[in-house]
Amino acid sequence: MPDIVAAGPAPHQILSRITVRTRGPGLTDLTARMAEALRAGGAGAGLATLFVRHTSASLTLQENASPEVRDDLVDALDRLAPRGAGWRHDLEGPDDMPAHIKTMLTGVSLSIPVAEGAALLGTWQAVYLMEHRDRPHEREVVLHFIGTCATPA
Predict the structure, then answer these.
(1) What angle do CA 66, 76, 78 make, to 5 degrees?
(2) Domain with 82 in it: what CATH number?
(3) Structural domain of residue 107, as residue ranges?
(4) In the chain, fewer beta carbons within 10 Å around the N or the C end?
(5) Residue 30: phi, psi to the nearest 5?
């Protein structure tokens, strides 16, 4: 169950933290956890913003059908910001600066419209946290919803 940090009256707001344990480079699907936070917080119609609180992980909206897409995205980012390219910043290892560049390229926040308590994602879309570091990490994503409260059935 998501950690609901705050919920308020009209305009209805939800502030929720989603903790993600990563296994190293790759994409972790957050779609179901976002949906649960919206449902648990009583979201109606409005806008959900997701924000990752890190400089070496990012968020993206991507295809959810073919796992090869996710692997290709990781490979493409590795080609754009390779380890061992002579980066000056390497305090935490050779993956440190490339991770910051990948985060800058992909972004740390998403805004997603919500109607009837559900994110209005396309058929093949899912929300992913992208881990850019080699080691596993615990990442925190903040979800903020502002809009209407769900109408009781």
Answers:
(1) 125
(2) 2.60.120.460
(3) 3-149
(4) C
(5) -105, 5
